[in-house]
Amino acid sequence: MLKPNVLRNKKDFSALYNKGRSVGDKYVVLFLKKNGRNYNRTAFLASKKVGKSVIRNRARRLMKESYRSLGKDLPIGYDFIFIARKTILNLKCADVKKSMEAAIRRSGIKKEKK
User: Fold this and answer.
1) CA-closest candidate to residue 34, choices 21, 25, 45, 44
2) Residue 114's pLDDT is what?
3) Could you tell me the domains of the chain?
4) Residues 7, 43: contact at Cβ < 8 Å?
5) How far is residue 6's CA from residue 96's CA, in Å, rounded to a whole number?
6) What does the DSSP assignment read for 9-31?
Protein backbone atom coordinates (compact mmCIF):
# COMPACT_ATOMS: atom_id res chain seq x y z
CA MET A 1 0.00 0.00 0.00
CA LEU A 2 1.47 3.32 -1.10
CA LYS A 3 1.39 6.35 1.16
CA PRO A 4 -0.94 9.01 -0.30
CA ASN A 5 1.11 11.94 1.00
CA VAL A 6 4.19 11.28 -1.19
CA LEU A 7 4.61 12.78 -4.66
CA ARG A 8 5.44 10.08 -7.22
CA ASN A 9 4.01 10.81 -10.68
CA LYS A 10 5.94 12.62 -13.37
CA LYS A 11 2.90 14.77 -14.22
CA ASP A 12 2.71 16.00 -10.61
CA PHE A 13 6.39 16.94 -10.62
CA SER A 14 6.06 18.65 -14.01
CA ALA A 15 3.01 20.62 -12.85
CA LEU A 16 4.87 21.76 -9.75
CA TYR A 17 7.94 22.85 -11.69
CA ASN A 18 5.97 24.61 -14.43
CA LYS A 19 2.99 26.13 -12.58
CA GLY A 20 4.13 26.22 -8.96
CA ARG A 21 6.08 28.81 -7.04
CA SER A 22 9.70 28.41 -5.99
CA VAL A 23 11.48 29.85 -2.99
CA GLY A 24 15.18 29.45 -2.34
CA ASP A 25 17.11 29.55 0.88
CA LYS A 26 20.70 28.90 1.87
CA TYR A 27 20.40 25.10 2.13
CA VAL A 28 17.12 24.15 0.37
CA VAL A 29 14.89 25.16 -2.52
CA LEU A 30 11.14 24.82 -2.07
CA PHE A 31 8.62 24.34 -4.88
CA LEU A 32 4.96 24.54 -3.86
CA LYS A 33 1.52 24.53 -5.44
CA LYS A 34 -2.05 24.03 -4.26
CA ASN A 35 -3.27 20.50 -4.94
CA GLY A 36 -7.00 20.68 -4.13
CA ARG A 37 -6.84 17.74 -1.72
CA ASN A 38 -7.39 17.55 2.01
CA TYR A 39 -3.76 16.55 2.71
CA ASN A 40 -0.26 17.68 1.76
CA ARG A 41 2.03 15.74 -0.56
CA THR A 42 5.80 16.03 -0.34
CA ALA A 43 8.98 14.98 -2.09
CA PHE A 44 12.59 15.37 -0.96
CA LEU A 45 15.27 15.51 -3.65
CA ALA A 46 19.05 15.71 -3.77
CA SER A 47 20.77 15.71 -7.14
CA LYS A 48 24.17 14.24 -7.94
CA LYS A 49 25.60 17.75 -7.65
CA VAL A 50 25.15 17.43 -3.87
CA GLY A 51 27.51 14.45 -3.65
CA LYS A 52 27.71 10.70 -3.72
CA SER A 53 24.82 8.48 -2.65
CA VAL A 54 25.66 8.46 1.06
CA ILE A 55 25.69 12.26 1.17
CA ARG A 56 22.51 12.57 -0.91
CA ASN A 57 20.68 10.10 1.36
CA ARG A 58 21.81 12.01 4.44
CA ALA A 59 20.55 15.27 2.91
CA ARG A 60 17.15 13.69 2.25
CA ARG A 61 17.01 12.27 5.78
CA LEU A 62 17.81 15.69 7.26
CA MET A 63 15.04 17.32 5.21
CA LYS A 64 12.52 14.60 6.10
CA GLU A 65 13.23 14.90 9.81
CA SER A 66 12.97 18.69 9.66
CA TYR A 67 9.68 18.46 7.77
CA ARG A 68 8.32 16.02 10.34
CA SER A 69 8.46 18.73 13.01
CA LEU A 70 7.34 21.52 10.64
CA GLY A 71 4.52 19.68 8.87
CA LYS A 72 2.01 20.09 11.68
CA ASP A 73 2.04 23.88 11.36
CA LEU A 74 1.56 24.01 7.58
CA PRO A 75 -1.80 24.67 5.90
CA ILE A 76 -3.50 21.69 4.25
CA GLY A 77 -3.87 21.21 0.50
CA TYR A 78 -0.38 21.82 -0.93
CA ASP A 79 2.25 19.90 -2.86
CA PHE A 80 5.84 20.51 -1.70
CA ILE A 81 9.17 19.60 -3.25
CA PHE A 82 12.22 20.25 -1.10
CA ILE A 83 15.49 20.17 -3.05
CA ALA A 84 18.83 20.04 -1.23
CA ARG A 85 21.52 22.48 -2.27
CA LYS A 86 25.20 21.62 -2.29
CA THR A 87 25.67 23.76 0.84
CA ILE A 88 23.73 21.21 2.94
CA LEU A 89 26.90 19.15 3.47
CA ASN A 90 28.07 18.67 7.09
CA LEU A 91 25.08 20.40 8.67
CA LYS A 92 23.03 19.56 11.72
CA CYS A 93 19.30 18.93 11.57
CA ALA A 94 18.57 22.22 13.38
CA ASP A 95 20.30 24.22 10.62
CA VAL A 96 18.30 22.49 7.90
CA LYS A 97 15.08 23.03 9.87
CA LYS A 98 15.79 26.78 10.15
CA SER A 99 16.43 26.96 6.41
CA MET A 100 13.20 25.11 5.62
CA GLU A 101 11.25 27.34 8.03
CA ALA A 102 12.66 30.43 6.34
CA ALA A 103 11.72 29.14 2.87
CA ILE A 104 8.18 28.29 4.02
CA ARG A 105 7.80 31.69 5.69
CA ARG A 106 9.10 33.45 2.57
CA SER A 107 6.61 31.56 0.41
CA GLY A 108 3.79 33.32 2.26
CA ILE A 109 1.69 30.28 3.19
CA LYS A 110 2.69 30.26 6.85
CA LYS A 111 2.49 33.37 8.93
CA GLU A 112 5.22 34.25 11.41
CA LYS A 113 4.55 33.46 15.04
CA LYS A 114 4.38 36.48 17.29
Assistant:
1) 21
2) 46
3) 25-105 (3.30.230.10)
4) yes
5) 20
6) -HHHHHHHHHHSEEEE-SSEEEE
Determine the residue type at 7: L
Give the model confidence (pLDDT) of 5-33 as tens digits.
899 999 999 999 999 999 999 999 999 99
How many CB atoms neighbour CB 98 within 10 A?
16
Could you report the per-residue pLDDT of 46-56, keeping only the tens digit for each?
Answer: 999 999 999 99
pTM: 0.90
**Concatenated DSSP letters of 87-104:** GGTT--HHHHHHHHHHHH
Distance CA 16, CA 13 (A): 5
List Cα–Cα distances, 14 to 18, 30, 41, 96, 112, in angstroms: 6, 14, 14, 25, 30
3-class DSSP assignment, residue 55: helix
Query: pLDDT tens digits for 79-106?
Result: 999 999 999 989 999 999 999 999 999 9
